[in-house]
Amino acid sequence: MPTPTHDIPLTLLDPDGGWINAPVHVSELDELPVLLHFFSMASDAHANDFAALKRFLAEFGPRGLKVIGVDVTHSARELRDTNAVEAFAREHGLVYPIAVDDGSMAQAYGVKQTPAWLVFDADRRLRHHFAGKDAVRQVRPVLDRFTQYDTSAGAPAP
Questions:
Q1: In this structure, is residue 7 part of a structural domain?
Q2: What are the pLDDT digits (tens) for 61-110?
Q3: Which one of 14, 64, 147, 150 has the fewest beta carbons within 10 angstroms of its own beta carbon?
């Protein structure tokens, strides 16, 4: 399903609900492909495809992929106290940055169901938006196209 492209808005990097694990700054995204994974704490880990996400991190992280989770299930209480989101992240082994969305990020990106996978190229342009329980199967080939091997790490010394 083709998706129109647009710049990642800077508001992405300053969610009203705060961050879990570590904040993300604009400079960290320069020239890197980005995967935004919108998920719901109300769904189980299998429905959110966290296992697939961990495989993507292992395979594409060394190739430059930046993964940012976006929690879209929360109450006003969770926006004031992110302990529930932190506990959820620990329980599921989610070690990448997670934005606690007040609803504005999901609305800005047109995310109407979770999980949703948004793939941005190195120029911070949205290239693909996949959503629903079977969407994860479409994500891997796209990540393969938008990441490159880091040849400097394995290059022999002159």
A1: no
A2: 999 999 999 998 666 766 767 888 899 899 989 999 999 888 888 888 88
A3: 150
Are the C-beta atoms of residues 16 and 79 closer than 8 Å to each other? yes
One-letter amino acid identity for 60? F
Report the distance separating Cα 104 and Cα 49, nearest Å: 23
Tell me the C-alpha distance between 70 and 104, whole Å. Answer: 11
Domain for residue 20, yes or no?
no
Name, in order, each residue with C-beta under 8 angstroms of 92's C-beta and a sequence gap of 6 or more. Answer: 45, 50
Which residue range(s) make up the domain with 118?
Answer: 31-149
**Domain-located, residue 74:** yes
Task: Quote the number of domains for the chain.
Answer: 1
**Is residue 17 in some structural domain?**
no
Nearest by Cα to 70 from 100, 112, 33, 107: 100
User: Which CATH number does the domain housing residue 69 bear?
Assistant: 3.40.30.10
Angle between helices 136-146 and 50-60 (to 10 degrees): 10
Distance (Å, whole) CA 52 – CA 133: 12
pTM assigned to the model: 0.83
Q: How many CB atoms are closer than 10 A to CB 39? A: 25
Q: d(Cα 139, Cα 15) in Å, to the nearest integer?
A: 25
